[in-house]
Design a protein that fits this description.
alpha/beta; 7 strands; oxidoreductase; 7-stranded parallel beta sheet; 17% strand; Rossmann fold; SDR_fam; NAD(P)-bd_dom_sf; SDR family oxidoreductase
Length: 252
């Protein structure tokens, strides 16, 4: 039986990388995207291959829709030539950047960037990829704990992630006729290089965040990827239109 195929955006590092590896462990072949870090993406491909699955990396700039048609053409070609398939079985909209800027100093350029990267990009990329998704596929959109709780400096980022939660419910409703499930995953504070690596590298911040988490620590990429893989698998076949916060119980 052929492996299912998942496309994971922004998977050269961090949560995207761990999601791709966890999906591979569940038997998925992977198409992963990167923006600039080709060497890092190629390393992830090698790691997936050591797990016994196929993988291929493609460049993608999620901040502009201008390249989406070309990207979809490349995905079709890769599916055909590398995976001997015509369709995907899962889409993980993970790519993004972190930004901390007070409401007072947030510029129109910053807000536009947040909109393009975290909302408009995933919105239209999913639209373009819909014909390549098998009926019964799963879509996982990346939200954030910051859509539920508020911290200074994240008004633009948090608002876009709240929009992703809402979008996911609408997609779940509209894609239901094709039995395509859509859920959003909302990580809490995670030790990665996201946002300049502040959670990982600033000890006092790390300790403060851990003190407000029921399980007593901040998250690791390994805490998130397994949940993404679960939501893409048949194990979660009756979970649909849900926001799944994976934060260890932060600010309960």
């Amino acid at each position: 039986m052929a492996s299912k195929i998942a496309l994971v955006t922004g998977a050269s590092r961090g949560l995207g990388k761990d999601s791709a590896l966890q999906l591979a462990k569940k038997g998925f072949d992977i198409i992963l995207t990167y923006q600039t870090k080709k060497e890092a993406a190629d390393e992830v491909v090698k790691e997936i291959e050591t797990l016994g699955q196929k993988a291929f990396a493609l460049p993608l700039d999620i901040s502009t829709t201008a390249g989406f048609d070309q990207f979809v053409t490349e995905v079709k070609d890769v599916l055909d030539t590398q995976f001997d398939s015509a369709k995907l079985d899962a889409l993980v909209n993970n790519a993004g950047i972190g930004i901390n800027e007070s409401f007072e100093t947030t510029t129109e350029e910053i807000l536009d960037a947040m909109t393009n990267i975290h909302f408009k990009g995933p919105y239209f990329l999913t639209q373009k990829l819909l014909p390549l998704l098998n009926d019964g596929s799963s879509i996982v959109n990346t939200s954030s704990g910051l859509a539920r709780f508020s911290m200074p400096g994240y008004s633009a980022y948090g608002a876009m992630k709240a929009a992703i939660d809402s979008l996911s419910r609408y997609q779940a409703l509209e894609f239901g006729a094709r039995k395509i499930r859509v859920n959003s995953i909302a990580p809490g504070a995670i030790e990665t290089d996201f946002g300049g690596g502040v959670v990982r590298d600033i000890s006092d911040l790390n300790k403060h965040l851990a003190s407000e988490t029921a399980l007593g620590r901040v998250g690791l990429p390994d805490d998130i990827g397994s949940v993404v893989a679960f939501l893409c698998s048949e194990d979660s076949k009756w979970i649909n239109g849900q926001r799944v916060e994976v934060s260890g119980g932060f600010k309960l």
